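Hi R.,

Here's the chain you asked about this morning:
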Amino acid sequence: MKENYKKILKQIEKYGFKAYIVGGYVRDTILGIRSSDIDIITDAKPQELKKIFSNVLTIYNKYGSVKLKLKSKIIDITTFRKELSYKNGKPNKIEYTNILKEDLIRRDFKMNTICMDSNGNIIDLLNGLKDIQNKKISCVRNTETELKEDPSRILRALRFMSELNFNLDQNIKNYILKNKNQILKINPIKKKEELTKLFKTKKVKPFLDFIKLADLEEVIGIKSINFKETNTIIGVWSQLEVKSYYMFSKKEKEQIKKVKALIKKQKIDVFDLYNNGIFICTIAADILGLNKKELNLIYTNLPIKGIMDIDIKSEEIMNIMNINPSKKLGEIIKVIEKEIIKGKLKNEKEEIIKRLKELR
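And the predicted structure, written out as tokens:
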């Protein structure tokens, strides 16, 4: 356990409360996986945590949690609670408890209920260790109840299956196959969040293969053909057919569009490198199986990386060509730009002026 997290637990204990790390960090530590997925639970209530820590950013009394700033990280600390009812996939009525097991019972999968105390000791009240040893994902409570109250748990189960190379408990598998349309109830933003977590790993293909075999592509809203594992999230999205309800930022849309165009083209030339930059071209090269080192070398040796690098100003071009700002100016700059990239024209003002006079 990292010393900083240990200090947080010790600080809460100092005031007479219990505190544990729970969930992803503990599971991943047991599996020998590096993790920064830190969730802390305690019997201290949000207002009590505010008195204990001076760096509390936000208090969510509705969910019994606070956000704590720790250097560059934000740590979630949640009070032990029972979830009495759900609405739209979220608990809408909770009740605080001081019993650890009651808090753990509300969680999704047994492997995510294992706790770690401030001394690094493992507390396993619901047989989560057994599931980890058996590489199995099973629900804490009744499978149908859990997956129906929060359908996003279906997507989480599929993500963990692929990410950890675990098997789904037969009850989970049966429920998913019989209740595919429950996935349609998941908020598209939440869907994208879950998929993005998976896409950060190089474990996407097993997930895509499973949802294709289980006929889940339509309800999840993604479809793949000839998918290749890649190192970037944009690289994954660029290989998928995606339903329109998935929201992307303007930057994401532009990047995906450019990568898709290069994949369709099946090759990357010097002009692609110049127009798209090395980041986009490297993503496409990874998917196409092209030599990335070679592309990096070509990009590094480009005489210019953009119009601003051309060794002459637009005003000077207009004076030499005796023209005003116009479409014609843009066409002339394009000619100069193209010849410099091809190596037909040196990026030196004197040489460019000579060429402009020829064009005139």
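Residues 199 and 233 are 5 Å apart (CA to CA).

Let me know if you need anything else.
M.
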